[in-house]
Design goal:
By secondary structure, the chain is mainly beta. The protein contains one helix and 25 strands.
């Protein structure tokens, strides 16, 4: 009888210890999107993710990641393969399969026509951001008598927008565009100056803004999507052409509940520096199809600093 009780107590003790050990292990319950390209952001949901020290996507460390809470982590896809996604904490590693990495090749050929370089017609490209991240490309009568906008959000949601407003060359443009899930107003000066998108609405997303630049026949617009990390975390997207760099930043809300901010920088060679609308200063470098840099804000309202990384997606 004593032997029976000893065995019983040992089994209960071992079972109890095993349960307590597994209760601290990280768990991935889901991630989205499941099909991405390099530079996209993946949202990982699960349990006990608050102490995440590493994220691997397709077997390769993420370019960067933000720990939003004990149950949500966001990571930027770096170079890697397919099949699995893993999250590591001091207590273990969680792995979930079902991940697919597709290849995206940024445009290498400039399609803007020389005859439209000083016109409101032509090609415009840029980045969008808010509670989602993406790119947008506008073709304004560049190859046909049609004005269209192509929007890609989180590499999953895609929309083509058109306008019913007649557009005249060398005239100021102010036109409403609409698609299946998105709408916005486009403004372009008569010579292609000061292009902007306002009142951007995308179903299922909030606080969305856009920054666009006119592409010239001899100057391509390049768009980068990424994240920033530091005393605050969030989206950090950039569009560039020659010496002009436009930025778009959205906090993940963990530290700051502030609207999406936009900014401008000046580039010299492969480097650039500038500021955002909330007085945050940023600088960085472009290396092939990647961008990286630092930011800081020492105003009376903020005390922020950190780094950002991104990958060219358009």
């Amino acid at each position: 009888m004593k032997y029976f009780y000893a065995v019983f107590i040992l089994i209960v003790f071992v079972t109890s210890c095993k349960k307590k050990a597994t209760e601290v292990d990280p768990v991935i319950t889901s991630f989205s999107p499941t099909s991405v390209v390099v530079g996209n952001t993946v949202t990982i949901k699960g349990l006990r993710l608050g102490g995440t020290t590493e994220v691997k996507i397709g077997g390769t460390p993420a370019t960067s990641f933000n720990v939003l809470s004990d149950s949500i982590v966001k990571a930027v896809v770096g170079k890697g393969g397919t099949d699995s996604l893993s999250v590591t904490t001091p207590f273990g590693t969680a792995i979930k399969v079902g991940f697919k990495l597709t290849t995206i090749t940024p445009e290498t050929v400039v399609v803007a026509k020389p005859s439209f370089d000083n016109s409101n017609f032509g090609i415009y490209k840029g980045v969008i951001g808010g509670t989602g991240s993406g790119t947008i490309k506008l073709e304004v009568y560049n190859n046909s008598n049609v004005a269209k906008a192509y929007l890609v959000l989180d590499n999953v949601i895609k929309d083509t927008l058109t306008t019913s407003t007649p557009l005249l060359q060398f005239n100021q443009i102010s036109a409403d565009f609409s698609g299946r899930i998105a709408t916005f107003n486009l403004y372009i000066g008569s010579t292609g100056s000061n292009p902007s998108i306002s009142n951007l609405v995308i179903n299922g997303f909030s606080d969305m803004k856009a920054q666009i630049i006119k592409e010239l026949s001899n100057q391509q617009v390049k768009c980068y999507e990424g994240l920033y990390v530091g005393t605050d975390n969030g989206i950090f997207n950039l569009a560039s052409r020659d010496t002009l760099v436009l930025g778009l930043v959205k906090s993940d809300g963990k530290l700051l509940q502030v609207p999406t901010s936009t900014g401008k920088a000046t580039a010299t060679n492969n480097g650039f520096s500038g500021s955002l609308s909330n007085d945050t200063f940023f600088s960085g470098t472009f290396i092939n199809n990647y961008v990286q840099g630092t930011f800081y804000n020492k105003s009376s309202f903020f005390d922020l600093s950190g780094t950002f990384k991104g990958v060219r997606t358009l």
